[in-house]
Amino acid sequence: MSEVRITLRMDEALHRVLVQLARKNRRSLNSEILVRLEESIAQDEDTRQEPREESVTRDEV
In this structure, is residue 54 part of a structural domain? Predict the structure, then answer.
């Protein structure tokens, strides 16, 4: 896997929270951000793959 280096701007409060979480989870800040991004994407993909309920229209009632 090739890596891409990016510059990321964020609010200072969010940065402090991420630093605290990284310390708690014994990860680097970079690793913490990557884990959380990967989890978010996986969760989003799971949501998309769930079968959608068919909506009932007035004509069907």
Answer: no
